[in-house]
Amino acid sequence: MNYILLAVAVIFEVIGTSLLKTTEGFTKVLPSIALLGCYSMAFYLMSIVVKTIPVGIVYATWSAGGIVLVSAISYFIFKQSLDLTAILGLGLIIAGVIIINVFSKAGTH
């Protein structure tokens, strides 16, 4: 259940980050409110998850998920390019999170 909450937190963070561009420096009220709501929800959910999963594992997973998803959104929606080096780096980030979550004993009590 906690990994589901973490995934939802990542989704809220990604939506919030994706809204950054539309706030135009927080001069647009509705996108700014939506961004703050998304970030608030992401951090609220993370505060629940860190009760049972170590904060380092939570943050590594949250950050990596956000990086990969925001990069994909930037590519597909904002038409920003990703070169081979960026794609390789994103692959290494994904591999790192998989290794942490599957093989690390840090997440056990």
From TrEMBL:
PANTHER family: MULTIDRUG TRANSPORTER EMRE, SMR FAMILY PROTON-DEPENDENT DRUG EFFLUX TRANSPORTER SUGE. This is SMR family transporter. One of its GO terms (biological process) is glycine betaine transport. GO terms for molecular function: amino-acid betaine transmembrane transporter activity; antiporter activity; choline transmembrane transporter activity. SUPFAM superfamilies: Multidrug resistance efflux transporter EmrE. Pfam families: Multi_Drug_Res. GO terms for cellular component: plasma membrane. Its main location: membrane. It is found in: Cell membrane. The chain crosses the membrane at residues 30-50, 57-78, 84-103. Keywords: Cell membrane, Membrane, Transmembrane, Transmembrane helix, Transport. It is a multi-pass membrane protein. It comes from Peredibacter starrii. InterPro entries: EmrE-like, Small_drug/metabolite_transptr, Small_multidrug_res.
